[in-house]
Amino acid sequence: MKTIAYFPGCAMKDQARPDEAGTLHALALLGYEVTEIPRWNCCGTVYSLAQDDLMRHVGPVRNLVRVQGMGEGRVLTLCAMCYGTLARSARFVAEPERLARINAFLDTEDDFRGGIEVVHLLTLLRDEVGYEKLAAQVKRTLDGLKVGTYYGCVLLRPRLFAVDDPDRPEVMERVVEALGGTPVAFPERTECCGAYLTVGRTDIVGDRVGRILRSARGGGAEVVVTTCPLCQFNLDERRPAGAPTLPVLYLGQLLAWAMGLDEPAVAALVSKEPATGRPVSTGV
Amino acid sequence: MASELDLSRDRLDAPFARRVEELSGENPYACYQCGKCSAGCPFADYMDALPNQVLRLVQLGDASALELSAPWVCASCLACGVRCPKGVDIATTMEALRILALRRGISPAPVTPDRPCPQIALVGAYRKLTP
Ligand code: SF4
Ligand code: SF4
Known about the structure:
The structure holds two protein chains of two kinds.
Chain A: E1 2-6, H1 17-29, E2 32-36, H2 58-69, E3 74-77, H3 80-92, H4 96-106, E4 117-120, H5 121-129, H6 131-136, E5 146-149, H7 171-178, E6 182-184, H8 202-218, E7 223-226, H9 229-237, E8 248-250, H10 251-258, H11 267-270
Parallel strand pairs in A: 1-2, 1-3, 3-4, 5-6, 5-7, 7-8
Chain B: H1 14-24, H2 36-40, H3 51-59, H4 70-73, H5 79-83, H6 90-103, H7 119-129
Helix pairs in contact in B: 1-6
The complex binds iron/sulfur cluster (SF4) (2 copies).
């Protein structure tokens, strides 16, 4: 058993519950004891790109202080956006003067000493578990299901924090393969869905989503998979009229299926099971 | 008649450009206006100035950049930054313009959330659209 500290973030306790449930069960089968960090707070979801905006790093850093308090040297996230804010803030405040100022802000907390590594699920599966060990745990193969792998922005940009090659990522494709699926690396898989513009600019987000889904279907995808709750929401809920109707799932839901789970939280996935025994209807 | 060509930055009305540079941590003058950022920006169609044009205004020290809608349409997807041949991270310039506008009281158009709207989006939006 390996232990790992886990930062869920808001979405995993809300609309992304099937993702969390599926992923945590899969990680248990893969030999991980996952411990949620105590008293975690919102990561802020979007990383501040300004040089003098130290206040917006307090949220992420507070979470890193909790990880430090657990005696852990790294923290796992499932959400792409949490990964972005935590990983980037950890580096931004590592500079001594900023570290001193942020610790003055935190005041009642333990001082952040830096050096906490932020790990996204995909990196863990690739670099530590390995695709072979993942494949060995598959109880119910995806049976060649054509899975469009949607990365979006935060997993791949900026380059310094990319979980894979920003131009030619393959980690999600390899995970799909390990689960018995056929990955569809469609051209729009690395282009933005519109993110938080969904609050008020549904016109723009709808256009983007239509384009992304047409690209996925054009590549032959029967389902689209993502690790970002905001991408999942946009691709599913902001789908414009006439756009392809293929299901948009979390990676955790695919893991759950492949690892033979029937938990209530993944019921939404299982209930879509068509007669062919595949995890989702093609819906197109 | 003596002729002299002065190409220094000091010729320009640079305080605005300097302020943007401070906030973004990016040198606007590194940009040579090739337009690659705008070619790849998934949101360029919805902007009132293309990303390279926004950067051009900053180079010229033209604070009218703060009145544009483009920085509010930019979703911070960072596609421009990974592709710029000069390594300019324009998304940080867009962020600097948003922040300067907010600090100077130039607000974006008011936003009415479309429902349903998950908290991950609401938190992201208020972090980007409020000072
Ligand atoms: S890609 Fe870079 S150099 Fe080219 S116009 Fe854009 S910012 Fe300037
Ligand atoms: S970060 Fe902004 S300007 Fe750059 S490509 Fe994305 S939306 Fe366009």
